[in-house]
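Feature request disguised as a bug report, sorry. It would help if multi-protein outputs had a clear separator. Right now it looks like this:
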Amino acid sequence: MSLNSSQQLQRRVPRVRPLARCCRYPDPMASASSPSGVDDTAVRLMVTPIVGVAIPNLAGMVHHASHSIVGLLATYAWFIGVAYVTWEGNLRLYLRFQDRTAWLTQPWHRVRLLIGVICLFTIPFTTSALWLWATLFADPSASWRSIGMAVIAIVAAVTFITHVYETLFLVKEWQSDRARGERLQQENVEAELQALKSEVNPHTLFNNLNALSHLVEQGHPRASAFVAALAASYRYLLKTGSKRLVPLADELALLDQFLSLVTIRYADGLTVTVQVDASSASRWLIPPVALPELLENAVKHNDFTSDNPLQIEIRLEGDRLTIAHEKRPRQTTVSSTGVGLENLAQRFRLTTGVAARWAETGGRFVVTLPLVATDGVNIAK
């Protein structure tokens, strides 16, 4: 088996608590100027005077010749005030009870709520306000018929305006739900990626500690050099532990450190050829510790000696990095932690959007790693 694990990858991903769902709409009493949470100040300033002037005239309530200029100004100020109080009162009452149900799940309850607000507030208030105006100003055109026509027009306006608000609320709720969903998805991805990383470090440490134990038992003269190289490698692991991506140049430098560990363990049994120039290496990003993992697995699952070394070739092909070597399966069973290419593939999927791939071709084992450009304009596809 080459660069792979025969065991099914099993892992426990930390559970991310769902984001607390806030009130469906803002607190109706949160702001005196905008209780709906929607910036409707400009619309109110424009529409309220229009409604206050248009509806009484359409209903035939005002006989202009019967009023002086001051009387007309007072009349329309009264109607504009009625329009404002009607708008404000309906909105506050509607918002006070709107959280008890949802329009999409219980639409008829919302309709009953609207009808209740109209019957218990809109009609009684506007009827009383218009009757009081007719009594105080003694306009000859003011009659119960014209008042009734005005109230009907006001009810129609309230229904329309409420529908507009409800549409805005649904759009805001959809946007808020989408933002919460994206945030929760991102947190889940980060949690899963962290779980995968937590498997990698013990896996690499396990292999190197076994090798160190073997060197110490044999009294190898370069055991201390192995410890120094291992410490340098783990300083890099600690430095990049919280990073999703690192420069390819840094990863190649880490590969050199791991190669020195392998050289101490196996003398000249392994050669690595890197066909990536410095300028190209600085242009690409890669998940951390990917190359050392592939080197470790190649060493673990393939036979090689100083007389017949295993040759590994690393080549940059567009926005892909390929790692290839001759397949030489070991004859003896190799102990494994069960963390291998499946882990690596999932980490690449989470960080680059594309999983790492591997295949056997002509007796060679080839792993293809997608890269991400440092300028952020390229995501490997």
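(second protein starts here, but nothing in the output says so)
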Amino acid sequence: MEMGVLVTAGGGADSALDESGLWTPSWPVLGKTVLQRWVERVQCLGVGLVSVVDRNPHERHRVHTMVEWAKEGVEQILLIALGSYAEIDLLDLIRFHSEGRRQVTKVFDQQGPLGISLLDRGCILANREEANQDGDLPSSRYDFLGYVVRLSSTAKYRQLVEDALEGRCGIQPTGSQIQKSVWIDETAQVDASAQIQAPCYIGPATKIKAGVAIKGCSSVERNCEIDLGTSLNHTSIQPNTYVAPGLYFRESVVDGTRLEHLARGVTLDLGTAGLSARIGTQARHAHRSPKLALVSQSARPDAKAG
């Protein structure tokens, strides 16, 4: 039996965009985005048809793709909305659906629907308009009691990172595990004087300078630079981010020039003070200018946020 998998970007129906802060689904989780991890999981089923489309309700791409697949003989279509990371046994979901009497099966956890549905070909062809709003179709309920994180905010993103580093979920960091709970990509450059405390993750092409301290389930994604003496504690640094020397970050996420402090619930622009930069758009060593040396002393308490 042929199956297609349609992954819709933009999150599930319960994603609280006004409370999401800096969070974006493009952020990697220890080397790979949630989208990449979902696609890898469904490819393990031997599925040949996998498509990623925009969830914008004004777009007709999703329903068009489903109908075209159904016309071509695809018997079942699995819909996954990127509103959560859930370690569902997809083979068990397929078995449950096949044994049921409904043409649609929806996955629920204890909080409600997860935005994951399995639909039969006949249902799609008979209800082409409703297929774009599968909540209106009669369905069976598949209750999932395993690991789930609803990715609606930066805090939820950090929960997923910490759970992965602590081994509380099935996500495996990319790169080499050089010691227990420490993953460092082989292309990363880590100064011998840096203090690396498990669990933590350092991604490809990232530079960790002298005197840097990384601890408390912190992660530094690809192509970043953490400059002299800066400390990261329960903090994630997003790809292509430069962080100036001598700073202390706790319970934060830094993405280019923007910082979100989770405990205080605030976002800051570090770029105006030269405390961080987007690599590739600003000079990586702007901290050497006399102006930044003056600004960083007065701005540092905001960046410290500890």
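Even a blank line would do. Unrelated, but nice: The domain at 173-304 is CATH 2.160.10 (UDP N-Acetylglucosamine Acyltransferase; domain 1).
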